[in-house]
Sequence to fold (629 residues):
Amino acid sequence: MMEATIPAIPVMAVAIRSPGYWKTVLLRFARDPLAVAAAAVVLLLILMAIFAPWLAPNDPLQGMTLRRLKPPGTEGYPLGTDELGRDMLSRLIYGARISLFMGIVPVFCALFIGAFIGITAGYAGGWLNTVLMRTIDVFFAFPSVLLAVAMAGALGPGIFNGMLALTLVFIPPIARVAESVTTSVRSLDYVEAARASGASAMLIIRKHVLGNVLGPIFVYAMSLIAVSMILASGLSFLGLGVKPPQPDWGLMLNTLRTALYTQPLLCALPGVMIFITSISFNLMTDGLRSAMDIKA
Amino acid sequence: MTPLLEVRGLEKRFTVKKGLFGGVRSYVSAVDGLDFDLHEGETLGVVGESGCGKSTTARLLLHLMKPTAGSIRFAGHAVGSPNLPLKEFRRQIQMVFQDSYASLNPRLTVEESIAFGPMVHGTARREAVPRAHALLDRVGLHPARFAGRFTHELSGGQRQRVNIARALAFRPRVLVLDEAVSALDKSVEAQVINLLLDLKEEFSLTYIVISHDLEVVRFMSSRVLVMYLGRVAELAPTETLYTQSRHPYTTALLGSLLSMDPDRRTEAAPISGDPPNPIDPPAGCRFHTRCPYAEAVCSRSAPVLTVEGAHAVACHRHNAASGSSGASQTEAV
Fold:
């Protein structure tokens, strides 16, 4: 009687084609609502930065002393005006350009250099590993903020120098993660089997190591974007990054702090933007990490 | 006839502790002077306790590690000589690893994993992929269902079949099976062993079966090599070894086999304790610390491998020149 209810298993199964690694990851990612929401916010921020000239209601650089430090909700200036009477909304929209740029570009530069150093050290092992990794270790002796400030201070203020300083700050941690992941992958049997096949080191790295190593390194680098943005804001705050009058969230936080007692809400706005951006990047990275963690 | 593989004085030492100023303080001798031949078409079983150097030997044979000393000749040629470049040697000898999961790249599909080897050796993709499908079919996996899958979508037995297909794709002459069936459950293990035996005939392969499972080795091998702490203890044709073992270590190992016959049940453990620390191996015969027949001579000098017909054993009791009291007795009998 029970048997009748069990559905018959089709004997000839159709060809099973796995959807592919990245497609599987994407499907898993799509099932995580928080991560998807965070990714949407990140996308919106990026679109906002790209289309700033069309979105901003006013010129972000045009000030007027008559209308300085208006509170949010003022007629014509929905988010108020800053200490020089410039439209806050337009400045926040334009500020996304430099802030996101300073968050993403140094991390990607550091990702290329750091991953190269780390994978080389991890795959080669031996003395090359020791030389490269101990050199990297020297950078860990300094706190990252101090290192960025010292570097930017020595190079002089400016966007390019700020980016250079941040890139240098992020190379060591990325290299270290890349090295440890590569070392663990390298000792696995499939790399051993690939070596036994007679393939060259370059081919083994390309075909067997990179694919298994880049994912974790990339996820780690993504988590640094928020850190990079905050550090860049810090540099701008200290006058070492972006120079006025360019709109940058960190710099805006600095210049507006004098109005902290008179217009507290206004002062908080750039900070809120930094907060939203960094938490979105972090949540997105978190979701990506768990989506990539496919187990048998 | 030249043996397919000639191993002479093979040694591998790993440095364990380095001194303060780079002076080397201690070694582990994983493999310590191994001599044996592998003949075309045979199956050589290699048995021993964990840590005796079985897997290190496999990796040395495949040139995945550089030996500290010793030589390996393949079909009469030294590996790396103009007659036998390393890459060609690697095509001829392949290995199936114990961990079926770790030995397949999780990012590659089954067909990509199998086709990778031939493509390294210059086969075009459009030839290598159909061949991978044919091999999948041969190892009992339907190509249409399995070729596009990833490692984590397969069971342990299926993965090991893929690993076998991957190794066979090179068209090798020698296949090293390093505990290839040990991690599988018993029913699957039997299927895979039968598959391996069929493939051996079909592709005229020569096997080296490394295992701690004495029954598997007995079933598969034509000759068996018993290793103890990096050295050959005994080497003999399978039935001779299993019925007339000469080395006390082999006897003890065989004594650990469970018997179907209740009258033959053992009460005391045939061998006790762990193997000595290989960092500081015992002087003389390495087995003397656990050997029931140990005498003074055993801790003084290391026994040499004495060959008598097809049976080679490294024990003072079987070497009349050693001065062991056991030796004279066995000679008399």
